[in-house]
User: Which sequence fits this backbone?
């Protein structure tokens, strides 16, 4: 029923797509960038051993989070976008989604407490219980779909800020009380609770945020969400399974060294993901009426991402031991070999983010699922072979090889072969140049700041002199973003042509 006392789905906020895009990018920066800062804080205060335990627990917890989410948010966004204002069915969708998320999170939390000791022998049961409580407390984050659909993306910034802030403060207080590793997990759990509560408050009370089980809603969300959940599971396995194997073979300190390198390498993915958040609608609309424009935009975007990623690879790889010691603490310099391997994930994030969004724009989710399945199996297989022999270095190498293989498979996919070749062919030279500069800088420069600066200067000069980029690249990307101004919010109607 749609009585006046019943909360409704908020309408689209003022400000238009440009404002929404700005807040979406800001929310991603706060959420992921703030998360990296808190992890640096945890590493410096806890040391490699406890930080390794925390990183291993978070790696395992990621799988249970995927089970709790079950690919729900993008599906719920799509369904809500088909309804307006006080539509009772829209309210039912939100309440049903919250109930589904709550019960799935509860089941996942119980499974975590029961199953985790089989893998995480170095983690106490009480810590697992706290992590499970945080998992259940996160169910209210499902309300993000309402904010996204109604274009109230400033609310995403608020919830992300509250989550990170509470996480950091709770950890610092717990650390002062001598709780150590327990303080980090407890801070994370309180951050999840704070984010859920904030989302409910921003929707003006718990009326809309009251879970209400609806088998029909659960069925609709589950039918579309399972493939997204499985895809997320496979991606997580590619990036995180090595952490769990290293923990059981080499101990928590080795996981800490591996995790430190992985976090620095993965931090670069923030930029491509943020930009593609805005470009995906453009790529999707080009698929309908301008496929050549879609291809041209993909090529130029990939080129710019790669040319930003390669200096990052150089900057991280050459002074790796000094960088790890500065950010994480002196003992983490032992993770230098892993960081120098994983730094190249920045390159794969640059290309992979574009390729993934092009595939989504073309409706190739099933192909994407198959590719990620291959990468996941390959990661596990290589990890079982390489980690016993090379330790955490083997885990880093397995992740890099599997991720590169997944993108190489695209060259054999008829619907993507031409696009991938066009994107990558002009970049072979810059990639080889960056690899050579890193090798020379590490061998001759002795990881010094001078070697890093010289390598970056040589790279920039040769890229400009060889004409890898030109004025048209920047103009094309600017034109694409200007196209956002002529597009309405999803809840307002069909985008303008």
Assistant:
């Amino acid at each position: 029923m749609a009585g006046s006392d019943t909360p409704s789905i908020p309408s689209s906020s003022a400000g238009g797509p440009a404002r929404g895009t700005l807040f979406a990018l800001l929310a991603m920066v706060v959420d992921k960038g703030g998360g990296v800062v808190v992890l640096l804080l945890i590493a410096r205060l806890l040391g490699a051993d406890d930080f390794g335990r925390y990183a291993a627990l978070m790696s395992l917890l990621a799988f249970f989070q995927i089970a709790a989410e079950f690919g729900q948010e993008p599906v719920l966004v799509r369904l809500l976008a088909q309804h307006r204002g006080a539509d009772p069915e829209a309210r039912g969708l939100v309440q049903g989604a919250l109930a589904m998320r709550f019960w799935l999170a509860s089941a996942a939390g119980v499974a975590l407490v029961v199953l985790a000791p089989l893998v995480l022998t170095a983690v106490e049961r009480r810590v697992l219980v706290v992590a499970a409580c945080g998992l259940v407390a996160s169910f209210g984050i499902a309300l993000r779909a309402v904010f996204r659909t109604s274009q109230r993306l400033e609310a995403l910034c608020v919830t992300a800020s509250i989550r990170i802030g509470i996480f950091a403060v709770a950890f610092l207080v717990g650390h002062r009380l001598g709780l150590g590793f327990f303080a980090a997990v407890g801070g994370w759990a309180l951050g999840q609770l704070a984010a859920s509560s904030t989302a409910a408050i921003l929707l003006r009370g718990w009326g809309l945020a009251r879970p209400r089980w609806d088998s029909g809603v659960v069925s609709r969300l589950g039918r579309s969400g399972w493939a997204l959940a499985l895809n997320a599971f496979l991606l997580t396995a590619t990036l995180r399974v090595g952490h769990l194997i290293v923990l059981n073979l080499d101990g928590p300190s080795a996981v800490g060294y591996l995790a430190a390198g992985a976090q620095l390498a993965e931090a670069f993915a923030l930029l491509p993901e943020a930009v593609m958040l805005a470009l995906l609608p453009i790529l999707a609309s080009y698929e309908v009426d301008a496929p050549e424009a879609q291809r041209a935009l993909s090529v130029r975007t990939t080129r710019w991402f790669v040319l930003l990623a390669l200096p990052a690879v150089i900057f991280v790889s050459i002074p790796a031991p000094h960088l790890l010691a500065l950010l994480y603490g002196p003992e983490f310099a032992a993770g230098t070999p892993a960081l120098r391997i994983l730094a190249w994930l920045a390159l794969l994030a640059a290309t992979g983010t574009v390729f993934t969004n092009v595939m989504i724009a073309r409706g190739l989710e099933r192909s994407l699922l198959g590719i990620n399945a291959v990468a996941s199996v390959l990661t596990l297989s290589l990890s079982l072979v390489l980690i016993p022999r090379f330790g955490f270095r083997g885990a880093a190498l397995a992740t890099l090889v599997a991720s590169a293989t997944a993108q190489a498979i695209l060259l054999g996919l008829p619907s993507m072969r031409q696009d991938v070749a066009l994107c990558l062919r002009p970049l072979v030279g810059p990639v080889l140049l960056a690899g050579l500069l890193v090798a020379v800088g590490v061998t001759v420069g002795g990881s010094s700041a001078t070697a890093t600066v010289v390598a970056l200067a040589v790279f920039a000069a040769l890229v400009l002199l060889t004409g890898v980029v030109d004025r048209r690249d920047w103009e094309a990307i600017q034109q694409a973003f200007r196209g956002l101004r002529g597009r309405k919010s999803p809840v307002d109607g069909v985008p303008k042509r």
User: Anything to note?
Assistant: Confidence is low (pLDDT under 50) at residues 1-9, 11-17, 484-497. Residues 36 and 263 are 7 Å apart (CA to CA).
